[in-house]
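Hey all, quick one. A colleague (J.T.) asked me to put the guanosine-5'-diphosphate job into the tracker so the inputs and the structure tokens live in one place instead of scattered across chat threads. No bug as far as I know, just bookkeeping. Sequence used:
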Amino acid sequence: ELAQRMAERAVDLVKFFMKQGQMMKPGDVIDADTAELVASEFGHTVKRVSESDVEEGMFNIEDKAEDLKSRPPVVTIMGHVDHGKTSLLDAFRNANVASGEAGGITQHIGAYQVEQNGQKITFLDTPGHAAFTAMRARGAQATDVAILVVAADDSVMPQTIESISHAKAAGVPIIVAINKIDKPTADPTKVRTQLLQHDVFVESLGGEILDVEVSATKKLNLDKLLEAVLLQSEILDLKSNPDRTAEGVVIEAKLDKGRGPVGTVLVQTGTLKVGDIIVAGSEWGRVRALVNDRGEQIKEATPSTPVEVLGLQGPPQAGDRFAVVENEARAREISEYRQRLARDKAVARQAGQRGSLEQMMSQLQTSGLKQFPLVIKGDVQGSVEAIVAALDKLGTDEVQARIVHAGAGAITESDVSLAETSGAVIIGFNVRANKQARAAADHIGIEVRYYNIIYDLIDDIKQAMSGLLSPER
Ligand code: GDP
């Protein structure tokens, strides 16, 4: 790579190293100091690029107050499993399609917009706090308002409490949606008093947190809930400058068979336009097309608009920041720099793993630590990250999940062979194994398990892991 970047022949570099008494072959890794030395020996001028050089001019343009305009709020729906997060998301989406223009079938792109009283609201389409946390872990904050769903026929549950903590930690205001009020066993008052114990003091009890009784399936009070969101965002006074180059965050990314790498981004400031050159994480590209949540091509996307971006060189990661840069050379420079950084980190991690593998072996002998190897494939990067984060938390001193590989896409033969060499079980979340992979897995006897609810997946692994635990004395 160094030879290539200097426009020299690799063989000349190898010769140079040989003269220095070092045997090197293409693909070997050298450190930055050596590279600098070699480059100057070959008569090149070296300019060291650091992250601060790269980031300069990105993400830190100050906007003048008079340039700021109101933007729609971005909402995440959180709450315990089965309390109705997905039903609410579906209800809002479908209501919007029905009232929208003809043929407007919403596409799943990871986020969508609805209108209430002529004002827009953006919903992130991945329910639950796991995805929210995974995004935050990457330094991205996309959410302005969290809707906390609690089923009125149930009570405040563990994931309700977790959701409250996550929203609070992120400083995101909560609106409580007391769901399933159509049920005869519904007891909204009980939910409100239970929430008090977790410092969620709702308006109808005299507190400040907005609460709305709804039914997602019977479509009761959904407009009231949307109005509460608008009220809350008025209080937040959400603004950004639409008249500048766009910046924002990647919500989802995938490799589409027909369309190539596709990233769904949420524009947070500025306006993203077809033809713009963007860098997203360590990927870049010229925006070939922008597709909205109704599958329509649009020319530009304003703040808080979720949009699919076509034209990237590769799929970025959920949670990556994106920004428009001035030209292709700059985009390449930043993306190459970041890819190099990521590679270096991967190399370091691998080196570290060899060490920790040895440590692990000795630990195994002394303390009986057991590992549960897994290969995880999911439909989108966001859910994969959420699953990995949740599995990491399951580990105890005695047994831990070891994620051999995690990624987005169908289960392939390569996953099966990876599982074979590592003795892993394959987990498919909203994805299936392709034909060849299925045949290979059957042939070798690799277990492939499918899920479409994260909670079920985690619960199963937990059970399996506890089976690995030594019996209680
Ligand atoms: P999630 O796990 O939080 O996403 O919950 P779901 O949206 O999948 O809902 C779980 C179950 O509750 C499903 O069977 C829904 O049909 C049902 N459900 C959701 N909202 C309501 C509601 O308002 N009323 C009633 N009766 N059932 C509901």
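Adding what we noticed when we looked at it: The pocket of guanosine-5'-diphosphate is lined by residues 79, 81-87, 127, 179-180, 182-183, 215-218 (CB under 6 Å). The chain has a mean pLDDT of 83.
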